[in-house]
Amino acid sequence: MTASERAEAKVSADDAQPAPPQLGQLDADKKHEGGQTFSASDSDDIETSDINERWLLRKLDVRLLPAVGILYLLSFLDRSNVGNARIEGLTGDLHMSGNQYLTGLTLYFVGYVIFEVPCNIILKRTTPRFWLPTLTILWGIVATLMGIVQDLTGFFIARFFLGVTESGLFPGVVYYFSMWYKRRERQFRISLFFSAAALAGSFGGILAYGIGHMRGIVWENGWRWIFILEGIATVVVAVAAYFFIYNYPDTAEFLSDKERVYIRNRLASDSDATHDERFTWGNVAKALRDPKCWLYGLSFHTMSLPLYTFSLFLPSIIRALGYTAANAQLLTIPPYAFAFITTLTVATLSEKYSQRAIPLIASASFAIIGYILLLANNDPIGRPGLSYAGTFFAAGGIYPATALALSWPAINVSGQTKRAVANGMQISIGNLGAVLGTQLYRQNDGPRYIVGHSFALGYLFGNIVVSLVLYIILKRENTKRATITEEVQNVGDLDDWDLGDDDPRWRFQY
């Protein structure tokens, strides 16, 4: 960093608003056990040797993962249930053509892409307990209103604002995890969190099957009830989320003073989460100037098209095999259940062997088998079992590969603001693939959907290429840095960590 850049960063830091509470910024005014005041200066004096690290980690998992996992399940459910609503009469009641329906899907991702980075900046300047539940309430309201739209314009507006309001959740939670877990623990937690998307697919099929029987109640078809009931459920859970989402370890009520200090010390051993980093636009620019951040985005870009085309069009793909709408809803459940299992399995293996690129490439290759089966079946109605088997391979590879791709910047980007922006960049760049994907599965292309399946297949091959490029770049960078200096230890205790992951003492995971 040049002298001018340091000066600019200092000026920006002076002008910035205070950051949310971070580790090491312990609240000196807060009373804890025994009525004694606890401050950062006391942290070194508290004995933590009797704390069981494994038990404490499980305690964090139980408190954090189900809470944000429920929010993401609702998020994925509210964005993908439009596919279930379609086969329950949505397009007919709103008098929309197949292409107009696809335009509505595209508008969702336009809103999503535009607002992801701004949402993570807001999270950095507020708190998770305020921002994540507030976002959930907003998209729950929009999701509910989708059930009462009366024309095509209303559908377009609702889909756009659903994308806007959902855009901050995933990148926000990825950043949130980086403030609680060590680098080598984040990928598994992100995969667990993302596995809620697969559960949402299973629940979506079950709920759509049940709600579909409400046709004739108020409205002729049951698609409106899918949006209304699932949207109301989202709002109810979001209100409760203000009480079960925690901010950062320094203020989490379920931790004792000893546990706070222990978490602070273990995070300081390998990450910057304990730094009191102020927001600056200079740190935002660091992410925008880093080619690796763009490659992380491209890694998700090449997975988002298969991911969202699969989740949005699976009910239509299965129904085109000759099944009734009700049976098609039920048949979406097993592939998603399989995806949930493969996501957790691959995440466990990736964490155990500290590998990122190799299991990602293996998962993408597994999904490729699925699309080859779908494309090779020239008589899907006559041989529906072959195409249905292809959906298992596709789901079983897409979901674990996506989880791995999304965890890369959370593990490798150092500098809190840079990491928050990098996470937002990744989702924004990635979802441009989803924008394209929403236009590929046209109504007249069934039952083979050659164009859509071919694009998904090509994108999966593209993901393998990007993963290999990242693997080579990160490995070479680590090798180069090893000739300069040793790997840094206790990052959180360093006072000269201005360069973040540009510091030659930092090592990347690949």
Description:
Keywords: Membrane, Transmembrane, Transmembrane helix, Transport. Its main location: membrane. GO terms for molecular function: transmembrane transporter activity. This is Major facilitator superfamily domain-containing protein. It is found in: Membrane. With 510 residues, this protein is mainly alpha-helical. The protein has a single domain, classed as Growth Hormone, Chain: A (Up-down Bundle), CATH 1.20.1250.20. The chain is built from 18 helices and no strands. It has helices at 3-15, 53-86, 90-93, 98-125, 128-145, 152-166, 169-178, 183-211, 223-244, 257-268, 281-289, 291-319, 325-331, 333-353, 357-376, 384-412, 416-437, 450-482. The longest helix has 34 residues, at 53-86. The chain is globular. The protein starts with a helix and ends in a 28-residue tail after the last helix. Residues 1-43 have low confidence and may be disordered.
